[in-house]
Amino acid sequence: QVQLVESGGGLVQAGGSLRLSCAASENIYGFGVMGWYRQLPGKQRDLVAALTKNGSTSYADSVKGRFTISRDNAKNTVDLQMNSLKPDDTAVYYCAVGYWGQGTQVTVSS
């Protein structure tokens, strides 16, 4: 089972940036799709960004133009660059590469 550890969350003011990183315990090159999700208390976990093995990306409408998902096969990481953050981006963010990470809290203050 692949172990995923997210990092990079924290508190930031609206308009600021954060970069989330997901480190995998083993090679992730073979996984067809990897993604970042977010979840608010009592709500479902929603897809924020996805990246396929061939490099195709997709984003939730609410983050298009602001967030960028990327991968580093050599380091076995999947990152999410988040710019122009808004209070509505506040959530726990989860990495998904066949399995779930433990999540990292992102809080955007107004």
Describe the structure.
- The chain is globular.
- The protein is built from no helices and 10 strands.
- The chain has strands spanning 4-7, 10-13, 18-24, 33-39, 46-52, 57-59, 67-72, 77-82, 91-96, 104-109.
- The model has no long low-confidence stretch (mean pLDDT 95).
- The strands form 2 sheets. A 6-stranded mixed beta sheet has the order 2-10-9-4-5-6, with no helix packed on it.
- It starts with a strand and ends with a strand.
- By secondary structure, it is mainly β.
H/E series: EEEEEEEEEE
Residue windows where pLDDT falls under 50 for at least 5 positions? none
- If helices are DSSP runs of H or I spanning 4 or more residues, what is the number of helices? 0
Could you give a short account of the major beta sheet? 6 strands, mixed
Strand line-up across the major sheet: 2-10-9-4-5-6
**Average predicted confidence as pLDDT:** 95
Counting helices, strands and paired strands, the structural category is: mainly beta
Distance between the termini: 39 Å
* Oligomer status: single chain
Share of β-strand residues:
over 45%
Work out the number of β strands: 10
Q: What's the Cα radius of gyration?
A: 13 Å
Share of residues in helices? under 10%
Overall, the morphology is: globular
